[in-house]
Structures are given as structure tokens and as C-alpha cells.
Amino acid sequence: MTADTSDEQWDLIIEGKSALFDLKFREVWHYRDLLMMFVKRDFVSFYKQTILGPLWFFIQPLFTTMVFTFVFGNLAGLSTDGLPQPLFYLAGITAWNYFAECITKTSTVFKDNTHIFGKVYFPRLIMPLSIVASNLVRFGVQMILFFGMMAYFAATGATFQVTWAAALFPLLVLMMALMGLGIGLVITAMTTKYRDLSFLVTFGVQLLMYVTTVIYPLSAAPAKYKYLISLNPMTGIIEAFRYAFLGQGQFSLWSLSYSGLIAVLIMFIGVVIFNKTEKNFVDTI
Amino acid sequence: MSIAIKAENLSKAYQIGQIGTGTISRDIERWWITKVMKKEDPFLKVGEINDRSSKGESDVVWSLKDINFEIEQGDAVGIIGKNGAGKSTLLKLLSRVTSPTTGKIKLNGRVASLLEVGTGFHPELTGRENIYLNGAILGMRKQEIDRKLDEIIDFSGVERYIDTPVKRYSSGMFVRLAFAIAAHLESEILIVDEVLAVGDMDFQNKCMGKMEDIGTKEGRTVLFVSHNLTNIRQLCKSGILLVNGQIQSKGNARNVLDDYTHSSTKLSSNGFVKNFSLENQHILSGQSLKMLLKFQNDYDLNNNKVLVRIRDERNINIIRFEINAPRRKVHNLRIETEPLVLTQGSYHVDIGLTDQKNTRWIKNFIEVGRFALTGLDTYGVGRIFTNKMAIITPKFDYSFED
After folding, report:
1. From the CB of residue B9, how many other CB atoms can be counted at a distance below 10 Å?
2. Tens digit of pLDDT for each residue in A68-82?
């Protein structure tokens, strides 16, 4: 038998251990059609046999906005930076929901797809990526609602303006996607062995919302907590989002680059951990 | 001929028992010993070969241990072995569902694995949409599926329902569509796990035909796991026999199959039978079957009933008989059947012990032995019947009358 070091040409070598930073993006690219199929499947299966179809995407943010307007706007009387309350909350909710959905849906990827993953190989990263992409569709639909609301309030003479920062919108979405995906990947990798974490996700994300500027503007935060709230990378994004479309919010390129850096870092850690887990998770889940 | 698949010292360890409590502390301990102190993993060292029936010392077992083989391009290889021998683990490793603990597999060519038909089918989507989805899961590109769509629909024979959600399909239609997609994969290596045990007779034959084409005409490499020895005999040129996670024999399919049917079974120490053997593992139709049961020393049969059952490879019970055991300790039980007028095929023997009223099993052993039966042209019509056509071939009298 010849030694392993000989120049044999193999298309693929399956081994137990792989390089830590082998992120397999090339393989993911090869399976891009599958990603599109999953997105289509999620979308189609969501509204099949429903009467309202994609309209359901409107219901949740609409009702949440109503409740927030009542509780935080009317009862608690929190500041909204001078913006119409529904518009202020809807902006926060729409952006936050995308981020939150990315976390919660990707955090159960391994558990939900054990059946498929246990029977056939494809780059596992396709699945969480497809979730983020499907959420993008949903987010897009909800943005239409937001724009509709903006049009309505513009017509009734409320004061707000769209600023140049709206050009950064794709970047904001990308940052939210990376961060949500990264956190979700870490959680799903950990939950294959330790189920405890999955209990944390739903209420953890909910609590996180309160330390992000979704229901109050950063400008209204008490001075001693302001620093802490700004440390949350989502704060900069939500504030920039509001500033972009409504003209109010503490927009700063510095805090945005901070969020971007954290997003890339979290995503990177997420992918590394995910790739390390995907090889053997079928045995432990 | 070039090599398509090469396995080198391939092993896979599984932890058995509970996973959960104590895993964090164990993981940290493991990480400390292997990564920080650079020593061998203590949890793997104690592993033992995977003999299901004997109680082991450790909670790590080697489902596969030091497997080495090479498979040539265009070869059709049958992987056989009893339940728990490591067949599925091997297929899982080859199809990258899980990764080996140690060792390597080297592959040349694209691999498509069919550990199940219809993986990822979504009930709400139509047949057509599912073709695209399932095809993509199996590794096909969209253009590839576009090109083969008509062929797939045609092969499946469900054209009329192709735009209906698959949740409205009968299970047969579902399976037909699923297999049709899989059969049209363009991969150099195809890995198949017992998926043929589905569909009606007609469709099964169609599948077998397609599988044969893939192996012989298209020159692709096929790995095939099945308990149905007739299928293996029909499809495969070579074989690999796994016993307790190790390769017992490999090479020519016929020889490997013989090794498999002839291996006598050592029974576990806590059973009532120490050893079971068949005098002949290969008989002709019309010969009788002789078997010998050696009882465990000091095992009191206690007036229970010994039960012997013969199954065919489709798990249909063909013969069952019960013997009243004496109320004392005996060493052996020798059984000789009447001539068996069965059709050609391979058969399994199960033995068990029940109480007098057949209310409960005291012991039950599945597949303690196997034998192959070669059919004869019993009726002088120039034809040997296999167990696909009939089960028994009794003699009969007949007369033509004017």
C-alpha cells in the first residue's frame, strides 16, 4: 500500500477532523439552487390553504403596534422623539422582528431538520441561510406596510422626513441578518447537546428588545444607562433605521460601524461553531 | 480500472446509554485531556466491538472498527450483515451524514445517496414542485432537473397528479415519484439503502431494472444495502460482509453471500440456547432441514414450549412449529423436518421459548440461522420457481380427460 502522501487525485476526502476555518462557502455556492427551493417552499407552504395568504404577514406588526401605542404611548407616555406614535413603533417593530425571527428560527435548525439532515448530505449552512432569506421576503412585505403607514401619515400632515441615510438601508438589513444568523447558529450548535439553551431563546430575545431602542428612543434614555444601551449593537441599527425613514434618531457612523464589526464577528464565530457541529450532530441530537 | 471509493482504517464510535447528565463535565474533562495535555482520548480507548447481545464494560462502542476496502469504478457492491453489524453506519459515513471517528474515505466522482426515498418532500407542494425540491436536496442543479423533468414524470407514472399537492397522493404514488427522482440523479457513485422494499410488484421490478441499468449499462458505481439476498444476488458483482462492525469477508458477491448464509450464530450468554447450528446451510428443494440446539448448561426448560419459525427474506413466516419441552434439564435438541418443498430463495430461522399457554415469550431469538434453498424443476416444465413467484411447490396429481 502506498503512503498517504502520494499524489493520488481524489475529488473528496471524508475525515473526522477538518480545519477550524474551513467555511465551505464554495460548496454553499454550488447548492444555491437548493437555497432558492427552500425559500420558495417556506413561502408557498405558509400561505397555502389560507384565505388571507401573505396578508397574514401584516397582522402581527399591525396589532403589536396598536398594543404598543396604547401601553407605552398612551398609558406610560414614553417619548417618541416627536414622531407619530404608530409610525415610531412600527419602524422599531418591523426592523426588530426581522432580527428576532432570524435568531429564533435559525436557533432550532438542527432540531427541526434532524430528519432531512440524517438522511442526506448538503452543506448544512444552506438551511439557516434559507431561513434568513425567507424572513427577508416576510420583512419585505412588512416594509410595504410600513411605507403604507408612512404615506398615510404624510397625507394627514404629520412631520417626518426621509433622509439620505435611507441609502444605507440594505446595509442595515445585512447587519441584522448577519447578527441574527450568527447568534442563531451558535445557539443551534449548542442545543444539539445541551437542550437547556432553547428555553432561553424566546424570552431572551424578548428581554433583549427592552434593552434595544424599540419602544423608546435613545434620546429619551436616562444618561447613566445611555452608554450601556449604546453598547447593544442592535441599538445603532434601529436608531439608524428610524433616522433613515423618519428623520429622527441618534444616527452616527461610528455606532453603525461598531454594529457592523460586531455583526461580522458574531457571524464568523457562528459559522465556525456551526461547521464544527454539523459533522456529528446526527449522533447526539 | 480506477478506484472510485477507498476506505482507510475507517472507524466510528458511538456513545451508548444516556446522553445528558454529566455531559458538560465530561466534555470539559475530555477537552482538557486531549487538547491541553495532548493525550489520547480516554473515552475512546475503552471502546469495544459492537456485539449487541453481550453486556459490555464501557458505554462507548465501535459501530465500525478499522474498515479497509477499495471499490472499483463501475462496480456494483452489496453490503450485507445482520441488524447492527454496521451497514447503515457505513452508508451514513459514505454519504457524509455523519463523520468518521478515525480514518478516511476517499472518493472520486459525485456521490448521491439514497438512504430513504422522498427526503424533504413537502406535503403542501405539488408533485412538480417536489421534484425540484427533492432533486435539489439530492444535489441536482436546476437546469439538470429542467432537462430531466419529463423523463422523471414519465418514469414515475403519476403524470395526471403532477400538479396536485403530494399530501393527496397515495403512499404508492408518493414512493414512485420519489424513486423516479432518485433514479435520474447524474452521479458517478450511487449509495442505496433498502429503498426498494416499497411500491407494488410491478414498480419494484421496474426499480430493479433501473438499478441494473445504472450498474451495468451506465457504468456507475453502486453501493447497495439490503436484507433481501435475492436482490443482492441479482444486482451486485461483489460484496462486503460486515459482522460486529468489522469486515468478515469481501470480494465476489456469490462467495460473500455464501459466507453470510453459512455463519452459525453464537448466542448470548444469558439465553437458554448456547449454540444453534444447521447441518446444511444449503439444501435443495425437497430435502429436509436438520438443526441442533445446544442448551445452556443447567437451563431448566421447565415444561415450556420451544418454538421454531422459518421466515423468507420478505419476513413472511413460512413455517412455525412448537415442541413441548420436558420438565428437566437437557443438553441438546435435535430437529429434523419433513422434506421442505419450498421455492428457491434464502430463509431465516428464529427460535424462542414460550410458556405452555403461549401467553408470553420467555426467550425470543431472531435470526439464529439462515439457509439457502435451491429450487428444482419440480414439475418438469423447464422452470425453477423462486420465492417471488410462489412459496411452496408441493407435488400434485393431475389427469387430462377427454
Report:
1. 12
2. 999 988 888 888 888
